[in-house]
From TrEMBL, chain A:
Residues 151-341 form the PPM-type phosphatase domain. Pfam families: PP2C_2 (PF13672). Residues 1-25 have a biased composition (Basic and acidic residues). It comes from the Bacteria. Residues 47-57, 82-101 have a biased composition (Low complexity). This is Protein phosphatase 2C domain-containing protein. Residues 1-118 are annotated as: Disordered. Gene3D superfamilies: PPM-type phosphatase domain.
Automatic annotation (TrEMBL), chain B:
SMART domains: VWA. PROSITE patterns: VWFA. It comes from Paractinoplanes lichenicola. SUPFAM superfamilies: vWA-like. This is VWA domain-containing protein. Residues 11-188 form the VWFA domain. InterPro entries: VWF_A (IPR002035), vWFA_dom_sf (IPR036465).
Length: 377, 225
């Protein structure tokens, strides 16, 4: 039935992409871009019997304990109950279990000499812990939005929580509001600050729309209000010093006229072009671990503004993603191929599962597709 | 945006005193520990991906023994003791080593602030004043200005270690110089490891994760000069 349906109604080019298990992608999606990278690490451990590679005959599965016939007791009688009826004393072979941490195979490339996936740990007494992964893939008014935030290998290994955060909202006006934040590693509760900030941006946007639906929202004003609310909530609700939740962040407002964005720190935005990606902001050239500006408590002159004409695809990201995109031709080529079409949650998450030498930070990307107009991808 | 691959680098420089007072067990302990640093690069992929190490020695003058490189692939020479102790020569040589090492990286390479681990067992002996050379090394207007972490042991002067350090200064507690050197090298390896891996939020870590346990070291407040 499914096959007949698909033959009758061929998938549109912009059908949302899901992970390769989804037959829509395999059958109808655009050809996969070849990953121009060397794969120099073994793939993640998978159960070879549960998921054998195509064309490969796995080793015979070790014998499992014999299944009891229907109606027979599941466990043998005790041998000492009737010596004449004693069962074979040889122990039944136990089913083999997969070794090592198990994950799903991904399609994202390995670039350079990258460490294998890490099991990670959780440090004791970290109460303010967001989940290690957040995913979204949905329509939002006149936009499609897919977003993923993945904990970095460094945080996994050191037992720290993911410190990136994102959120988005479509207003009654049809505008799309996107917030992205990245907690400062040197601040003990920065994950709280990042999460409160993205939440506060949407609250500020909703209030602004309610107050005057026709007014042009100012992303810098939304950012300032969100920063102020974050500091207040941290103090009043969590009884923490706002200096302990430092973060960098950005606010974007998208409508039919394009995208206006305000940021403090190195969260960035990229538009997809025929040649790949263009960065909306000017990238910092200083050392990566020297923070130029952060929130809360930012100064007005530290807020950077940028305006981007309507683009088919815009990606907002924290530096863990932005640095890789800037410095990896292989990644840009691969993502440009992938992100031509809207994604569903697991597919967008899979695109950020690339492994890259020296890339250990949390990664967050919010990708927005326009679903109408001539500039649609 | 570059079309090539530029991988993030955490530059680490070791600045080791090889004056005559290091003769015997102390220099042997340093030589014995260098392969341990190399093994860390080889055995811990998250460290090996990102940390690049340079080694410089100083006595009357300075010498770049290993330029900034992937230590996993480097040949490790045996360090030999030399003459007196000239901190000014050490700082001048270190600035040159950093400049040379950082500019040898492909243009546009994302880097963390360089870190210098400075270890000495004695006092500055040369006539020239060393503070000017230190200021040149740590001048914040220089784009490669490093974080300097000092480890003093044996006859090292506490105040000098405090002045040389940008933020973190330590004096080894144990009275045996060989044990002191061993603990310092362990602390350096631990700090490279912890910083390289925790750096994962490297991007926002304004500084270092130092692994200098208080049972072996006395932390000292840095003194600005």
């Amino acid at each position: 039935m499914l096959e007949r349906f698909r033959r009758s109604f061929p998938a549109r080019r912009d059908d949302p992409r899901e992970t390769p298990d989804d037959p829509r992608v395999t059958a109808d999606g655009p050809p996969e871009a070849a990953a121009p990278v060397t794969v120099d690490e073994p793939p993640p451990a998978v159960d070879p019997w549960a998921n054998p590679p195509a064309g490969h005959d796995p080793a015979p599965r070790p014998p499992a304990a014999p299944e009891p016939a229907s109606g027979e007791p599941a466990t043998p009688e005790r041998a000492d109950s009737d010596p004449a009826q004693a069962v074979d004393p040889a122990p039944a072979a136990e089913p083999a279990l997969p070794t090592g941490p198990r994950d799903l195979p991904g399609t994202a490339p390995t670039i350079g000499r990258a460490a294998p996936p890490q099991l990670g740990q959780v440090n004791p007494a970290i109460a303010l812990r967001p989940p290690a992964v957040a995913l979204d893939g949905t329509s939002a008014g006149g936009f499609r939005v897919a977003a993923a935030s993945l904990i970095g290998a460094g945080h996994l290994v050191s037992g720290q929580p993911r410190q990136d955060s994102y959120n988005f909202m479509v207003g009654e006006s049809g505008r799309l509001y996107v917030a992205v934040a990245d907690g400062l590693g040197s601040k003990p509760a920065s994950q709280l600050g990042a999460n409160l900030f993205t939440e506060s941006v949407l609250i500020a946007a909703a209030q602004a729309e309610k107050a005057d639906p026709q007014a042009e929202p100012d992303p810098a004003e939304l950012l300032a209000q969100a920063s102020t609310r974050t500091a207040r909530v941290v103090e009043e609700a969590y009884r923490l010093d706002p200096r302990t939740v430092g973060f960098v962040g950005a606010v974007a407002v998208l409508d039919e006229r394009g995208c206006r964005m305000a940021r403090v720190g190195d969260v960035s935005a990229f538009t997809m072009t025929a040649d790949g990606f263009d960065e909306a902001f000017t990238a910092d050239e200083g050392p990566l671990n020297v923070v130029s500006a952060s929130m809360p408590g930012e100064k007005p002159e530290q807020v950077e503004l940028v305006e981007v004409a309507p683009a088919g695809v815009v990606a907002f990201g924290t530096d863990g993603f932005a640095n890789d995109l800037r410095t990896s031709g292989a990644l840009r080529e691969w993502l440009a191929g992938q992100w031509r079409v809207p994604h569903l949650p697991f597919a967008i998450g899979d695109t950020l599962r690339y492994r890259r030498q020296g890339s250990h930070d949390d990664r967050t990307a919010v990708v927005v597709w326009r679903t109408g107009g001539d500039d649609a991808p | 945006m570059t079309s090539s691959e530029l991988f993030t680098v955490f530059p680490v420089f070791l600045c080791v005193d090889v004056s005559a007072s290091m003769a015997g067990g102390s220099i042997e302990a340093v030589n014995k520990a260098l392969p341990d640093i190399q093994n860390e690069m080889r055995s811990n992929p998250m460290v090996g991906e990102i940390a690049r190490v340079g080694l410089m020695t100083f006595s009357d003058d300075s010498r770049v023994v290993i330029p900034l490189c992937d230590l996993a692939d480097a040949h490790l020479p045996e360090l030999m003791v030399e003459g007196g102790t000239n901190f000014a020569a050490a700082f001048r040589g270190m600035r040159q080593a950093i400049e040379s090492g950082m500019t040898s990286l492909p243009k546009g390479t994302p880097v963390y602030r360089p870190v210098v681990f400075f270890m000495s067992d004695g006092a500055h002996q040369a006539r020239e004043d060393w503070t000017d050379a230190l200021h040149q090394l740590t001048d914040k207007s220089w784009k490669f200005a490093p974080e300097v972490v000092t480890f003093g042991f044996a006859d090292a002067q506490q105040e000098s270690m405090q002045k040389i350090a940008t933020r973190f200064a330590f004096i080894a507690k144990n009275s045996d110089p060989v044990t002191q050197v061993r603990e310092i090298m362990n602390a350096i390896i631990g700090s490279i490891r912890t910083t390289s891996t925790s750096l994962a939020d490297p991007a926002k870590q304004e500084g270092l994760y130092l692994d200098a346990p208080t049972e072996h070291f006395t932390p000292l407040p840095a003194i600005t000069i």
